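Memo to structure team: turn this sequence into structure tokens by end of day. - J.P.
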Amino acid sequence: MQLNSFTKQISTAGRWMAKALMGFLAVALLWQGAFLANLSAVAAPTNTLIAADLGTEAQSKVGKDTGRAKNFIQDTKETVEKAARDNASKVDDATGDDSNFIERRARRDASRIHERAEEDANRTEKAVDNTRNAVEGAIDSIKDAFSN
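Reply from structure team:
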């Protein structure tokens, strides 16, 4: 289908108007973006106060979480020790008054479980403390970097 001269002129005008509209929109979006950036806020010294507040808040959160982790570790240790005592008591009840090999073995196992629970709890608490110290050190470093 061939376009007659009137249709060609309308088609050309439509393309020209579409290009002009697209260019106008591009300029408008760029113009608007220049005013959205608040450049004065980038150099404001209040940002260091915000970073310091966030750092202090993060350190208090780390302290709380460390306390919770240590409480959980102690609860787990006590649960393991209680289970070992209960098992030794059940063996003792089952064997009666006679002191035999199984009863001695159950007591020895209970004391070994108790010792291992203490060692594991101490080792885990030390790891929690080391992690807390590392996180607090990183937060202090970041706060120092923002304060200078």
